[in-house]
Amino acid sequence: MAKQLKQYDGGRLQLFILYDRVNRYDSPKVRAAKSKASSEAQRRMNQKNALRAVEMRLAKNFPTAGSGRVYTLTYDDAHHPNDADPKVCRKKVIRDKDTFLKNLRRERAAAGLPAPKAAGCIEVLTSEHNRWHIHICIDATGDDDEMIRRSWRKGSDIEVRPLRVDKEKNHETLARYMTKEMRELQDRCCSPGAHVWFFTRNCAKVEVDTVVVPDDYSLSAPKNCEVIESFKCKTEFAEYEILKLRTNSQAFPRRPKAIRRRAGRR
């Protein structure tokens, strides 16, 4: 008997999923119950997969409140996309976003600074005015605000707010906002399945690790961690757990050692 443990490493934000493995010696009834439990765990994850992926990657690259600032880049009347087809407008905004990041890279290189890490989304307000704008989180400190303003040449109205990582505002709330338009305006503004959010190439990706652990293994948060989400479901034959937590340091407990699989007899 053994369980499967899947860990999503988002730096200070960690996500664990623990569920029963199907054993070849299980009876059909037990096998069906375990498969249902693991499927239910995956179903709960699939419901939030896009949101979860963005949240974990934001946490990986912007772990603390001081590690980034959120900018809203808006257009003035002279540069605002006015095509009747929203998809055409979105393509123009994507080009303008790429040009902005290119300009910012040049500004930073001239000042001897590394290329910016950035993540954000393209959005159009669902009002009668339909004003396109870009929300973007950059690893800025505030000293480079003028560089950012010079790099955006489609308007002078730029809203700036610090990245928050607390109970009210955090990586999840920012990720929820970044994925909002995909849920609400998918058909109007972009092709089905297209991402409305973006990350620059130098943003680290979330690492996913899967190991087999003993049957009596259970999820528990260490003392230095804040539990954000904890869920456990148990039936007669199977169970699964989900644990999401945040810590103030990178000192997470070591991953449990995987069980060595015995070679089957021929």
Characterise the protein shown here.
By secondary structure, the protein is of the alpha+beta class. The protein contains 7 helices and 10 strands. The chain has a 5-stranded antiparallel β-sheet. Strands 6-3-5-4-7 form a 5-stranded antiparallel β-sheet, covered by helices on one side. The longest helix has 25 residues, at 86-110. The protein is elongated. Residues 189-193 and 260-266 have low confidence and may be disordered.
List keywords for this structure.
266 residues, alpha+beta, 5-stranded antiparallel β-sheet, 31% helix, 27% strand, disordered C terminus
Residue share in β-strands: 25-35%
Q: What is the radius of gyration computed over CA atoms, rounded to a whole number of angstroms?
A: 22 Å
Q: Provide the spatial order of strands within the biggest beta sheet.
A: 8-1-2-10-9
Rough shape?
elongated
Major beta sheet summary? 5 strands, antiparallel
What is the distance, rounded to the nearest whole angstrom, between the alpha carbons of the first and last residues?
A: 21 Å
Note poorly predicted spans. Answer: 189-193, 260-266
Helix content, binned percent: 25-40%
TL;DR?
The chain has 266 residues and is of the alpha+beta class.
